[in-house]
């Protein structure tokens, strides 16, 4: 007990590792040539020591000045994490020591924010912290799923194998996310382009026709008057409209982040949108199968794995369903039977799960399910792209055509009178 207490006291007394900073330096190499560059380290002394190890005699080292506006750092993306995991897995498989692998990957990363995080994790590991614990300090970037798999790898002595599985999982999930974004981009693009074109015409083109029609002094068709009235409203109140749109977007995003009920309503409705809903359903199934396959293959107990899987599906409808399945599996029910009680899993997925449970190859069967639905998402996104290309032309053509007709109706009317 005394030893444990002493250990805890030492850990508490241990100073916090300094955060890595960027330093610019100048020095002389072994041939006497003057060189300069940048290094990332905890302090100036660490930079000097690192340069001397490389055969450089530093003559000037100073902290790189921060930009006046903003932090100057890029956001850490899912792609950054995917690349980091793959690089780390490759180095571990090649036999590179863990700390050295973190150092190489961290210093070689293009994203300064990612560099800071990786080198900070490296410092924790050097201080005796486990990899899973070190990663868990960054829950935004390393969720419970990743930390659980890393912990399992550390305990079993197969960290390189588990890192490879995590890397593959990350690459697959990032690919799915990219396809979903691509699928959602086209409808958004159609709406945005249509609005921009319409506003430009209302602001700059319609007023020119209005002046022309005023000089005629003739009665205008109702449709033309409506378009001119709309143009007047947009020209006079464009600033209020912009503020209203910005306020609506901000308010919606604010409430969306804080209201689970709203997210549930939107997630449930999004699954029923024609074409798009099918893609989102398939993507959620692919994530479910891929995540569960990865965790089960790593030896994570099914009940514990389902907890992590629920958050990885990307949709509250599936998340709630998986959590209910977890409760049923925890009472001794089979996974495939728990899935049958939910109405969101296709028959094929349930059958593959049943075969996997009976044959003891659940991870393999779920992996095949994930492969199938990932391919389905890919094909669906390509089909959607082909479908929406002519739709964009129809929507924009219809809007512009309507405005043009509204402006030319009076001219046609005058021509008929003449």
From TrEMBL:
The keyword Lipid metabolism does not apply. It is found in: Cell inner membrane. Coiled coil: none annotated. The keyword Transmembrane helix applies. One of its GO terms (cellular component) is plasma membrane. One of its GO terms (biological process) is protein secretion by the type II secretion system. It is a multi-pass membrane protein. Pfam families: T2SSF. Keywords: Cell inner membrane, Cell membrane, Membrane, Transmembrane, Transmembrane helix. Residues 84-207, 288-410 form the Type II secretion system protein GspF domain. Its main location: membrane. The chain crosses the membrane at residues 184-205, 237-256, 391-411. Belongs to the GSP F family. This is Type II secretion system F family protein.
């Amino acid at each position: 007990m005394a030893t444990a207490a002493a250990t805890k006291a030492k850990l508490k007394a241990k100073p916090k590792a300094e955060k890595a900073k960027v330093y610019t330096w100048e020095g002389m190499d072994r041939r006497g040539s003057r060189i300069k560059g940048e290094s990332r380290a905890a302090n100036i002394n660490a930079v000097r020591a690192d340069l001397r190890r490389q055969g450089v005699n530093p003559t000037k080292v100073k902290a790189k000045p921060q930009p006046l506006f903003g932090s100057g750092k890029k956001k850490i993306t899912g792609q950054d994490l995917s690349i980091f995991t793959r690089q780390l897995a490759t180095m571990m498989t090649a036999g590179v020591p863990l700390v050295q692998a973190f150092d190489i990957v961290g210093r070689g990363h293009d994203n300064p924010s990612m560099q800071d995080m990786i080198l900070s994790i490296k410092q924790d590991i050097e201080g005796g912290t486990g990899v899973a614990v070190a990663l868990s300090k960054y829950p935004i970037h390393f969720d419970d799923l990743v930390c659980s798999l890393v912990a399992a790898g550390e305990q079993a002595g197969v960290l390189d194998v588990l890192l490879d599985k995590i890397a593959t999982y990350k690459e697959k999930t990032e690919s799915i996310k990219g396809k979903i974004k691509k699928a959602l981009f086209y409808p958004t693009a159609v709406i945005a382009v249509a609005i921009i074109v319409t506003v430009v015409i209302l602001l700059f083109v319609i007023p020119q026709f209005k002046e022309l029609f005023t000089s005629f002094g003739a009665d205008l068709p109702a449709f033309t008057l409506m378009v001119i009235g709309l143009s007047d409203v947009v020209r006079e109140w464009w600033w209020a409209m912009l503020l209203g749109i910005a306020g609506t977007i901000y308010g919606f995003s604010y409430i969306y982040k804080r209201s689970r009920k709203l997210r549930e309503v939107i997630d449930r409705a999004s699954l029923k949108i024609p074409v798009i809903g099918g893609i989102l359903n398939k993507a959620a199934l692919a994530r479910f199968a891929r995540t569960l396959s990865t965790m089960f293959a790593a030896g994570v107990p099914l009940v514990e794995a389902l907890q992590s899987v629920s958050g990885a599906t990307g949709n509250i409808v599936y998340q709630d369903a998986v959590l209910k399945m977890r409760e049923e599996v925890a009472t001794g029910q089979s996974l495939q039977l728990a899935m049958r009680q939910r109405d969101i899993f296709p028959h094929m997925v349930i059958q593959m799960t049943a075969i996997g449970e009976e044959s003891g190859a659940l991870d393999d069967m779920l992996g095949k399910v994930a492969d199938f639905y990932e391919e389905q998402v890919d094909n669906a996104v390509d089909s959607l792209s082909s479908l929406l290309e002519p739709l964009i032309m129809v929507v924009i053509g219809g809007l512009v055509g309507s405005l043009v007709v509204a402006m030319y109706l009076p001219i046609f009317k005058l021509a008929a009178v003449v």
